[in-house]
Amino acid sequence: MPRPHDTVLTQREREVLVLVARGLTNKEIANELCTSTSAVKTFLHQACEKLGARNRAQAVILAMRRGAIQTEDAFSLEEIADLLASLGPEAIETIAQLVKQRLEQARSPLHIEAPPIARH
Q1: What is the DSSP string of the chain?
Q2: How far apart are CA 95 and CA 32, in angstroms?
Q3: The whole model's pTM is what?
Q4: Cα(76)–Cα(42) distance, integer angstroms
Q5: For residue 33, with 0-12 CB atoms within 10 Å meaning exposed, 13-18 middle and 19 or more buried, which class applies?
Q6: Percent share of the chain, pLDDT over 70
Q7: Quick one: which of 35, 45, 106, 118 could link to 39 by a disulfide (CB 3.0–4.6 Å)?
């Protein structure tokens, strides 16, 4: 089990995961990063360990969910649009509603309740 300070991905681990998300093989990643395939395997293994992932696909998903890698680093907006378009109109409408809700939540001021006033 990783210790808390060991769970932060290094820059190189993030770079490897972004390239995995783009569908590159270990050899292609090694060429892209000017390193060896064994180094890529090591970075990928370390990332999987830190994220608690069973495989490279799960590592990418967990890294995106936790904000360790950004979706836009792995995919262009056109690629995301193509993926969404493949889902069909009903799914796109549902996604649009969910995105709108998330944006409204992000824009609304935080509601912080004041602690109760102690009466003596």
Answers
A1: ---GGG-SPPHHHHHHHHHHHTT--HHHHHHHHTS-HHHHHHHHHHHHHHHT-SSHHHHHHHHHHTTSS-HHHHS-HHHHHHHHHTT-HHHHHHHHHHHHHHHHHHHSPP--PPPPPP--
A2: 34
A3: 0.73
A4: 27
A5: middle
A6: 84
A7: 35
Q: Which two tokens stand for residue 65?
A: 């969910």
Place of tokens 């006033």: 117
For 59-96, how does the pLDDT look when each residue is reduced to its tens digit (9 = 90+)? 999 999 999 999 999 999 999 889 888 998 999 999 99
Residue keyed to tokens 């390239």:
19
For residue 60, give the amino acid letter. Answer: V
Q: Please, which pLDDT band fits residue 29 given cuts at 50, 70 and 90?
A: very high
